[in-house]
Amino acid sequence: CAWKNRDWEKVRSLCSSPSIVAALETGDFEVKMSEIFLAIADGKLSEVENLHAQTAQLCLYKWRLLPSVFSGCNAHTSLLHHFHRLIDLKESGQIMVETSTHSNGKTCPDLKNLLSAWRYRLPNDFDLISYWEDIFQWRFHMFTAITTNFHWAEQGTLASLHDRPWTAIRMAKTARKQGLQDVARLSLGKLTDCAMDVSDAFSKLREQILSYRHGSDEQRTGGLNLVNTTNLSYFDANQKGELFRLKAEFLESLKGG
After folding, report:
1. Alpha carbon of 134 to those of 81, 111, 123, 229, 237: distances in Å?
2. Burial tier of 120 (Cβ tally within 10 Å: 0-12, 13-18, 19+)
3. CA 28 to chain centre
4. pLDDT in tens, 197-253
5. What is the DSSP letter of 28?
């Protein structure tokens, strides 16, 4: 999807194409959702609330057309995912209003409650990884917008305005548990240039190591090398203990192989 790459010109072009306009006239809520993306990206924040309400109505209408939840039909799952995205989009509009107001005044907003809510509002662990990607990729866009607007803030203050490390690590954990090791490592790779505290740095390292645990002998050796080349001086006793546990697990695995 173009929005995942922040190709807003392409999104804008697609939204005005005859086929998409026709789909919108038939009540396609996904097309309407794209209009919310554009409103947020273009800074037309006054339009977000109205577009959100229209899209929610289209989703609710679609829900009413579905069979009973207890009928065994899986169509509800996809629609619930879109409701989840809608909530995030509405809050994203609110974030950008706060961001614009505070950035102009050279002050920083308090986004802790919202970022905390985003941590708890997640897809199910068993949901398709594409559902997770939809949610988290949009949040990454928001974190980028926030850091861009407050580039003048001190590093510590800026880090409190977004949740990029936790989000990437959580995505990696979900992908790993679904057996998608390459996706997990790709997610962690997004943190290459991201400032992190010791706790996040440890969580990232742990996920990197675990992504090699059930691989080939060569991959498991790579995981072991990650442990062996880590500077342990930054970590506390519990974190060091976990790394030694993982080292023992890899050594035992390689010995058994």
Report:
1. 9, 21, 10, 34, 37
2. exposed
3. 24
4. 999 999 999 999 999 998 889 999 999 999 999 999 999 999 999 999 999 999 998
5. -
